[in-house]
Amino acid sequence: MVVLDNKQDQPLHIKIYNLIKNQIAARDLQPHSKLPSIRNLCSELSVSHNTVEYAYQQLLAEGYVYSKPKSGYYVSLLDSEFAQPLPHHTANLQEKVLQKQSPYSYDFHPASLSPESFPISIWRKLLVECLQEDPRQFAVYGSPQGEFALRNEIRSYLARSRGVICETEQVIICSGLQDSLAIIMPVLRSDHSLLAVEEPGHFIPRSVFQNHSFAITPVPVCTDGLDLKALWSSKSTVVYVTPSHQFPLGHIMPVANRLKLIDWAESVGGVIIEDDYDSELRYQGSPIPALQGLHPEANIVYIGTFSKVLSPALRVSYMVLPKRMLDRYRNLFNESASSASLLEQRVLAKFMVRGHWERHLRKMRTVYKKKHEVLVQAVNRHFGDQAVIIGQGAGLHVVLELLNSVFSEEELIKQALAKNIRLFPLSKTYISHTESDTRQRLIMLGFGGINTTKIDHGIQLLHQTWYK
Ligand SMILES: Cc1ncc(COP(=O)(O)O)c(C=O)c1O
Questions:
Q1: Which protein residue's CA is at the shortest distance from atom 7 of ligand 1?
Q2: What is the pLDDT of residues 68-82, one digit of tens each?
């Protein structure tokens, strides 16, 4: 039911325009839902056809709605950062759920995504479509390697966007990084036992490697990524790397070093596990092509995920095995079931085939580029020369090096928490423990999950808290 505000002295068409615009901004009108027809609204409000028509034309001109010939007007999909917050609006169901998920006033956790960005209506439509297809699909296990259609889409996307060169038979659908690594470990086990990891680096792979009885050796990271001299002296024969956006420091391994790393693998009969987790999200210059594409025949296991751009909750990721490893993989896993849901795989395949993935990716790049820009400006404005930003220009987080700080990381995080600001301890990404070096002053600032409008104030609060 539509109720106009009689208190305000405005032309009727403006009142109707404002009312609908506010409902769209508050998500009381869901994206792609149909507006009442002009005729129905006229009779509901007892106003003229022209009045409603003017209001709808204004909404159309400003992009709040779109029109379908012979069908009517529909609500456009808007990001909440573009939607206007309402002064006294009551939270709708979706927002209540989101509030429940993040009890923090300012959430700078690096693994969170923009909560409003998941393409719910498209996903729902494709899901329903999949459910209405042949019911026999729910009575069987899928291929252990994953759905062919999805693997094929991923292969062609990787060739276009990441420079990865492979056949569809090399692509394996997994349910996240942990799953991919758990599959590779037995494939490598008979020839390898010592595995090098980046220091600092992602902590989940380390526990997977150790759980599969690999000894791990930390290799330091410098501004050019992994320290290759240290890798040679480590005597390991497998290395886990994030060359296009080192996690967590954000460094990019230059091509000369990538070639040297491949030489290392060829010389020692080694294997490179390339984790290309968020390289689609580059905000300055072009995306850095994957290492795999430099030598597609080499022993490089390439790993990617949908967790950074689409959703970490779907648990769908992929890996590209080198051809040399396929036989061993099949011997070990031919009788296994894929751990990725068949239904989600089918929905995702349709999502990619119909071009939604590339559109969504472009949209997310714009959303996160904006957040990244706001974050960098906020740090510069509030911290000035008291902090240096490390690893900016890509992904969903940056690292802040605090200068002249007297507090330990633990104290800094505790002080932030007292202001209801959530930070993730970067020290978790180190294996070795030292108390007194620069790492105590490194703070990870994720910007994926925090609303753009909150970034500046969150950063200001952090500065006030730490430098009061
Ligand atoms: C370095 C790194 N690799 C991979 C991932 C993605 O993991 P998954 O595909 O299991 O969600 C993340 C997520 O935060 C990450 O930080």
A1: 177
A2: 988 999 988 876 544
